[in-house]
């Protein structure tokens, strides 16, 4: 079903219209907040080169660029993402090769071995709760893999290209994300004073990738890596804006959002949806400039949490789809693509995401009986909003969970 909006529409078809409504708005504000995150990150990165220019100036420039790319057409978005991805892939390949040489002592003249895996409290810093916290943070970086499905409605020959893209996403995560982290683990201890959050230096310019290049004795590593990180931020902001506009467009066509957001221009771009998303992302970013940024930090956590909620929706929708498909007399041979490990796959995904969501508020406890209710609310804010959207729509529209034999399996 290559329809724009992807799993948000599937939630309404295979589960409950109220579920699809809550998923859609949850996914939209998740990416709208991600736009704000990337605007903030872009401003900080640019201050590495031009520290005297306010970061919000660069954030505004970044917003203009990504809005411009998304205004061209879906082809323009795809072309930009192709080159962004190519640059990132080349960088990671070079990083992995250099990292292996450094770990082996060929570069830098130090044989690191496995000592960083047992330094200090490693490998499980903070115990079980520390491991859970890693899931919360790393989950934000994984978000976006589901965009393969969101873009299906506008892709060429989706029956062939979408399954191919899905398989590539899996192997790229395994190679470029997991393998890169393993290399970093060999070379950079978790308590390195140059890392953000190590309790010493708080410098956005020093990333683990940069530190590895420095270990290799490569002088301009910081400048090169910051340029690459800036491209990564631009790519993430570009994808976030695309996901938002297509989700809002889909909701408008499904009568879940005002009709104006269903309008498209001559190039097929939903400009009203694009403009609203850009405004919301900009307003969310502005909360980081006033007061102590508490509201902004809440929004950041809500963005990460809402991503896990989206994956919960994907797992449930997939499980229900396959059961409905069989219940309505179809056979699996009719499907152009079948996900491996069904039903175990979506069940495990659902369980793991639920565990992570349940642990969102544990950081509110600071020991010695101190509990930060504001931080707790911030951790569960997205869940509260999702529940309000679901039950609110269900009460107003009086919707019911679909029977398997009544799920809409029509292609379009």
TrEMBL record:
Residues 1-404 form the Amino acid permease/ SLC12A domain. The chain crosses the membrane at residues 28-50, 56-74, 86-107, 127-148, 169-190, 227-249, 269-290, 296-319, 340-365, 377-396. It comes from the Eukaryota. It is found in: Membrane. Keywords: Amino-acid transport, Membrane, Transmembrane, Transmembrane helix, Transport. This is Amino acid permease/ SLC12A domain-containing protein. InterPro entries: AA-permease/SLC12A_dom (IPR004841), APC_YAT (IPR050524).
């Amino acid at each position: 079903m290559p329809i724009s909006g992807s799993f948000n529409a599937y939630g309404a078809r295979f589960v409950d219209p109220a579920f699809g409504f809550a998923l859609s708005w949850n996914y939209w504000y998740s990416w709208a907040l991600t736009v704000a995150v990337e605007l903030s990150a872009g401003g900080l990165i640019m201050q590495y080169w031009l520290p005297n220019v306010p970061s919000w100036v660069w954030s505004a420039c970044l917003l203009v660029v990504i809005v411009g790319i998304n205004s061209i057409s879906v082809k323009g978005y795809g072309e930009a993402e192709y080159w962004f991805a190519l640059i990132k892939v080349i960088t990671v390949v070079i990083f992995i090769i250099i990292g292996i040489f450094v770990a082996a002592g060929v570069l830098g003249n130090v044989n690191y071995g496995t000592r960083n895996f047992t330094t200090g409290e490693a490998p499980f810093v903070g115990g079980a709760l520390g491991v859970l916290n890693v899931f919360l943070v790393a989950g934000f970086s994984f978000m976006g893999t589901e965009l393969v499905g969101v873009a299906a409605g506008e892709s060429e020959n989706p029956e062939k290209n979408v399954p191919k893209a899905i398989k590539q996403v899996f192997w790229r995560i395994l190679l470029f994300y997991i393998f890169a982290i393993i290399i970093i683990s060999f070379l950079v201890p978790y308590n390195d004073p140059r890392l953000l959050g190590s309790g010493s230096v708080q410098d956005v310019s020093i990333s683990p990738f940069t530190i590895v290049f420095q270990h290799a004795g490569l002088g301009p590593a910081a400048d090169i890596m910051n340029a690459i990180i800036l491209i990564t931020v631009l790519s993430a902001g570009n994808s976030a804006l695309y996901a938002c506009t297509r989700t809002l467009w889909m909701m408008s066509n499904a009568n879940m959002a005002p009709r104006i957001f269903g309008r498209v221009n001559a190039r097929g771009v939903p400009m009203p949806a694009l403009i609203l998303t850009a405004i919301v992302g900009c307003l969310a970013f502005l909360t980081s400039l006033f007061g102590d940024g508490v509201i902004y930090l809440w929004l950041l956590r809500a963005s990460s949490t809402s991503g896990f909620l989206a994956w919960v929706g994907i797992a449930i929708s997939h499980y229900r789809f396959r059961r409905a498909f069989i219940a309505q007399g179809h056979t699996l041979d009719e499907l152009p693509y079948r996900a491996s490990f069904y039903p175990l796959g979506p069940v495990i995904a659902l369980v793991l995401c639920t565990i992570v969501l349940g642990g969102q508020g544990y950081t509110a406890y600071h020991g010695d009986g101190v509990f930060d209710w504001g931080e707790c609310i911030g951790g569960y804010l997205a869940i509260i909003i999702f529940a309000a959207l679901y039950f609110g729509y269900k009460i107003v529209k009086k919707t019911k969970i679909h029977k398997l034999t009544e799920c809409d399996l029509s292609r379009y």
